[in-house]
Amino acid sequence: MPGETTKTSRQRVEAADTAPAAPVDVVHMAAVLVSASVVVAALYLGRDVLLPLAVAFLIGFALSPLVTWLGHRGLPRLLNVILVMALVLVVLGGLGVLLTQQARSLSAQLPTYQTTIRGKLSDLREMMQGPGIFDGAIRTVDVVQDEVTTEPAQEIGPPPQKVEVIEPAQSPFKTAIEWLTPAIEPLTTLGIIFVFVFLALLDRRDLRDRLLRLLGGNLHRSTAAIEEAGARISRYLLMQLLVNVSYGIPMALGLWFIGVPGALMWGTLAAVMRFIPYLGPALSAIFPIALAFAVDPSWNMVLMTVALIVFLELVSNNIVEPLLYGTSTGLSALSLIAAATFWTLLWGPVGLILSTPLTVCLLVLGRNLPQMQFLVTLLGSTPALDTPTRIYQRLIADDPEEAVEIATEAIEETSLVDFYDDVGMEVLRHTIADYSRNSTAEFRLRISNGLDDMLEDLREDFPPSPNSAVGPRILCIGGKWELDAVASEMLAHALVHEGMRAEFHGFSATGLRKVAKLELGDVDTIVISYFSDKPAAPARQISRRIRQHWPNVKIVLALWDAPEDMLSKDAHQSLGADALVTTIGEAVARLRRMVKPDEAQAVEAVIAPDNDAERIEILHETGVLDGHAREDLDLLAKRAADVFKVGFAVISAIDGDKEFIIGQSKDLPGARTRDGTDMIVMPRDDAVCNHVVSTGEVMVVDDTERDPRFADHPAVDLWKIRFYAGAPLKTAEGHVLGALCLLDTKPHELTDNETALLETLAGDVVAAITGDEDNEVDVRHPEEETASATVGQKVPN
């Protein structure tokens, strides 16, 4: 829940700041450095063995999905591996034959281009021999160098005699050995790679089990590491193949249109060479440009070839690669370059090709092994500091301009209200945690001035809504000290931005005598902010004093860091207030209900989807409302409740004017159908999954008591719901039949992975309703033959 999350994050920040700095363990650091040196030395010295293994496993990752696909067709695994390996050999052999023919044809034509080459070289030589701006300086330097290095002439004796050493004639056998020796090593390496690939594909399960044993520790964590590494590397290889093909085909067509001989060969070479990071594209571009130089007596073909290559590079680097790669590896740009340099120094050109997959494996180890989490910071694309910490650091550094820039980017990605909730309040919590412990007077002054400048710029960049000029007046004030006032300023800005007539008063309510000085004659609602974990006593006193002077003014207490025991449904009554809020979003929603109820009703109204009539027709076609799938749906609801460890789960379907609970994990109270199906039924306006069906998106409410949309909801009151999470039951055609809902009598939170898993289970529910397995959301990795929806999770990017 928001209040619980706030409290936890504040305690975490305080704990981190109050904990004493751990002394540097010199012995441990030395052991780490020695271990790292030993590992690097082993990688370098064992490259002859490790390189074929690494290449084989990389190829195995690429071919494993095809082997698995054949296995799903009922073929034995040995036959699958043989077929895949044979297919690869046939494709490579056919491509080699085609390219050899093109190379032979091109080699036969090269002598005809000698005249063109000589003519262009002659022209270039004449251009280079012309007078230049540096010719005089170069001649002067040459003369001085000759004068300095010239020695006096000395008498020279007879010239030395030339001695020629004649080697004895070699036998044909020895000559053949000298010719074959250079080819034996690469052929042997290729053979080893082929054998390793075959064994890796055939014994994948055994290798997986052995790797799990080596990782040891938590089996869940080790399994997640293997799955994540496999998913990232497989996706990277697939995307790289698509990128290279999307580059090589236009390259071949463009060269053919320009008239460069061997267009197919150069397009294929360009696609293959792009597997080599950074250097591959440049090397592949040399050959077609050189051939265009030799073929065309003019410069038109060369210029068109260069323009084609530059155009394809721009499109590939700026459009195709960002579109296809996305976050497939999770590596930062700097770590990719550093990894390429490191692995190239260790293993040469092949190390450059393997640098990205190998570094992905290191990143996955860092994600899943606590002792190697530093690798995530060094290699990962995720920012090392979250947005609140970045803004707070810029304020400490007296750089409010960059803080405003970071804040503006965050607001554009979400909204002003979400920014203040997720970022602004966290900045204030950082400030509170450091205020009396780590910060000096100078830093406190920087933060105060920086917050003022940042909020002033944000008010200019995100001005009030035109509707904020009318309506009941809302006054926001701080309850005790400066940061309470800053929180009130954020709230006032969010309110006017959302169309409410709100003002911020720099007044601090500290001291009960100051309350009488407030001018609240035309104020409808006053909001008092407290950044304290013990706000009950001052809040109760201030509320009582305001009631004495202005009994008609509504009082809202904004308790940003209140403890859990103060956040019950009727807690505001014990404090003498009309409402209690804990987040900016909750404050905006509740105040809109209080001062503009008609507007709030319009904003919170649930709008039926555009395809509602068609959706209802499809729901009736499934026949699920006759109760035929009740047993299966009850089991799926129970599975969902067990997996997420919540109190209960329900599966609902919305008809034209009613909501039917077609599956539930336990018996629940409520009105039921009388046609023998014995399903809980309620009006559509009171449907528990109305918002999910309307938006077609997952909805998670950590604490229903903090969400005004659920304040008077009948099902929430009947079932004592404090936590709600609903995933849409969406068919393959996009029709939302209802929702799979997780419910509990106490607040909860869902991670991104758990939200994705909830969508997966919703896909299984749709499959059970429609009988169409295409609606199942498959999150299994290609290399996994067996994984149920209860354990299969999407790999985080």
Short description:
This protein has 797 residues and is an alpha/beta fold. The protein is built from 28 helices and eleven strands. Among the domains are: 1-18 and 387-462, no CATH class; 46-107 and 184-202, no CATH class; 471-602, Response regulator (Rossmann fold, 3-Layer(aba) Sandwich); 612-775, Beta-Lactamase.
Protein traits:
five-stranded parallel sheet; alpha/beta; 28 helices; Rossmann fold; globular; 797 residues; disordered C terminus; six-stranded antiparallel sheet; disordered N terminus
Largest sheet: 6 strands, antiparallel
CATH architecture field of one domain: 2-Layer Sandwich
Structural class assignment: alpha/beta
Number of strands: 11
Output the CATH class name of one domain. Answer: Alpha Beta
* Gross morphology: globular
Using the CA coordinates, give the radius of gyration.
36 Å
Low-pLDDT residue intervals, each spanning 5 or more residues: 1-22, 775-797
In CATH, what is the homologous superfamily of one domain?
GAF domain
- Order of strands across the biggest sheet? 8-7-6-11-10-9
Gap between N and C termini: 25 Å
What is the CATH third-level topology name of one domain?
Answer: Beta-Lactamase
Subcellular location: Membrane
Membrane topology: Multi-pass membrane protein
Keywords: Membrane, Transmembrane, Transmembrane helix
Main location: membrane
Describe the structure.
This protein has 797 residues and is α/β, with parallel strands linked by helices. Among the domains are: 94 residues, no CATH class; 81 residues, no CATH class; 132 residues, Response regulator (Rossmann fold); 164 residues, 2-Layer Sandwich (Beta-Lactamase). It contains 28 helices and 11 strands. The chain has a 6-stranded antiparallel β-sheet. Strands 2-1-3-4-5 form a 5-stranded parallel β-sheet, with helices on both faces. Strand 3, helix 20 and strand 4 form a beta-alpha-beta unit. Helix 9 packs antiparallel against helix 10 and helix 25 packs antiparallel against helix 28. Its main location: membrane. Belongs to the autoinducer-2 exporter (AI-2E) (TC 2.A.86) family. Pfam families: AI-2E_transport, GAF.
